Amino acid sequence: MHRDVAALEQRLQDCSAPQKLIATDGVFSMDGDVAPLRELTQLAQRYRAWLLVDDAHGLGVLGAGGRGSLEHFGLTGDDAPVLMATLGKALGTFGAFVAGSEALIETLIQSARSYIYTTALPPVVAEATRAALRLVQEEPWRREHLQALVARFKRGAGQLGLNVLSSDTPIQPLVVGAAPRALELSQQLESHGILVGAIRPPTVPQGTARLRITLSAVHREEHVDRLLDALATVFAAGECARG
Hints:
Helices cover 45% and strands 15% of the residues. By secondary structure, it is α/β, with parallel strands linked by helices. It has 2 domains: 134 residues, Type I PLP-dependent aspartate aminotransferase-like (Major domain) (Aspartate Aminotransferase, domain 2); 102 residues, Aspartate Aminotransferase, domain 1 (Alpha-Beta Complex). The strands form 2 sheets. A 4-stranded mixed beta sheet has the order 1-2-3-4, with helices on one face. Strands 5-7-6 form a 3-stranded antiparallel beta sheet, with helices on one face. α7 packs parallel to α9. The longest helix is centred in the last third of the chain and has 22 residues. The two termini are 37 Å apart.
């Protein structure tokens, strides 16, 4: 069902509810690929459904101005009536937000229990977020540098023959199959001074346990090269052990 627009349309056709909601990530956190937002907006319009985009991994990273997945596809807030994102990833602060129409926001304020009983963000966090937004808007070199690192890693991983999923975002999943193998490789990388999480079922389907490699703008080219060298070493050691 992942990114399966045809399957979604079939479900919309079969749905008789007067109110419909299409909910998607902008960037999928375990695969690193981007939702087909143009097609989703077309389906939302055709079937009179709301489109909710959770852009936790797109905001600040994708789009010419860092506005996220919608900007990446040339879309606007009018195309996605409900936009969510976290402030704790690319913006480096804390908290999250929902953006939408005045009617939507007022409804959430009055009706969303998780909001009603949540303590407000400290003012210093709000101001830090404003500063982070200014950096996103005024200093695009971070995104350019990050994309260069992604390209460098993908090129090196391809030369090593690693099973990295098709992703052009900073999330670069390396599928290894069995959960014990993913844990073993993660521990071996840590012994090389590199922290890469091992993602296992039920977070991902059986047989697709992976190393979730995540690059950031604070990394440098030598960090990517060190990671590739370590991956080559631990995978070669594993092949030798099985041989």
